Structure formats: structure tokens, C-alpha cells
Amino acid sequence: MEYNPHYPTILPEFIALSLVFVLNILIPVSAIFAARRLKRRRWLPHTTAFLWVFFSPLTLAILTTPTMAPDEVGGPGDGFIVLPILWETPLVLVVYAIVLLGLHAKRQNVSAPHLSS
């Protein structure tokens, strides 16, 4: 993954890949903490986090696609940089959903009145 000045990208591939990997973890975690501090619209940080993680492969593709002449054709391995993010995306979304369901169940158990016998 060398940077080629003849085919400029928005970010070098290794920086863009690292950035998207880290943001796919940090954004859902920060959404959980942000939603706890909100009184209204607690769903908004979670929606934003979900959309970020869902569209992160597209974001990575935009950041790392080189600028080419109109008559040029991409090589056979041009899209391989997106594969790690395509594998990470469902994993992060499933773990995020499990954590949210666990937090919701915990909040329901705390707010339920206890019957004393």
C-alpha cells in the first residue's frame, strides 16, 4: 500500500483504513454515552452511529478511490481495500445491537417495582 502521486486519493489507503476501523468502534461507544446524557431524542445518537457504521464501506471507498482519467480502467484489485470494513461492519452492528438490548433490559429491570412479601 504505497501512496502513488500520479493517482491521488483523498487520504492514503493505510490512513483511511485505520481511521474507518477506529471510528467504527468509537462512534457507537460515544453514542451510548451521549444518549445517556440526553433527556429527549435518545434515539438520535444511536441512529447516527448506525448510519455511520452501515455506510462506512462506502465512505472508505470514496476516501481511497484514486482519481483516474476518463478513459482509464481500474485494476483487478482496486476494491480489495474495502473487504476488511465489509467484514467489520456486520460484526460491529450485531455487537452494538446486543449491547443496546442489554442496556435496555437492565433499565427495564431497574425501573420495575419490587414486590415485598
Describe the protein in words.
The protein contains three helices and no strands. Helix 1 (13-37) runs antiparallel to helix 2 (43-64), helix 1 (13-37) packs parallel to helix 3 and helix 2 runs antiparallel to helix 3. It has helices at 13-37, 43-64, 83-111. Helix content is 65%, strand content 0%. It has one domain. The chain has 117 residues and is mostly helical. The chain starts with 12 loop residues before the first helix and ends in a 6-residue tail after the last helix.
Question: Main traits of this protein?
Answer:
117 residues, mainly alpha, 3 helices, membrane, transmembrane helix
Give the DSSP E fraction (strand runs of 2 or more residues): under 5%
Order of helices and strands: HHH
The total number of structural domains is 1
Query: What's the main sheet like?
Result: none
**What coarse outline follows from CA principal-axis ratios?**
elongated
Let me know the number of strands: 0
Parts with pLDDT < 50 across at least 5 consecutive residues:
none
* CA-based gyration radius: 20 Å
* Amino-to-carboxy terminus distance: 68 Å
Give the helices and strands, then pairings:
Layout: H1 13-37, H2 43-64, H3 83-111
Helix pairs in contact: 1-2, 1-3, 2-3
Compact summary:
The chain crosses the membrane at residues 14-35, 47-69, 81-103. 65% of the residues lie in helices and 0% in strands. With 117 residues, it is mainly α.
